[in-house]
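Lecture 7 notes: from sequence to structure.
We start with the chain below.
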Amino acid sequence: MTAQKKDSIVLLIHCKDRPGIVARVSGFIHDFGGNILDSDHHTDEETDDFLMRMEFATEGFQIPPEDVPSAFKPIANVYNMRYEVSSF
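Predicted structure tokens for the same chain:
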């Protein structure tokens, strides 16, 4: 028997690096009942660009996938992020 893959949302982020980005994005997911399935981030030390990919389960998440981009926008504005949201 194989485990069935959970439906998920992937959030891709690009911005200048500064403290608190990972905590704030993780907090957003936690605050709305989300469960992080996978997370990866990297800072390019030459350009100071921060790149992040975070995948979280749709099950239990209190925001419908189609509404995540607008719900995340206030956080993106604080950090001047470019971001993309995809659901699977």
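Points to note: Residues 8-87 form a domain with the Alpha-Beta Plaits fold (CATH 3.30.70.260). The longest strand covers residues 8-16.
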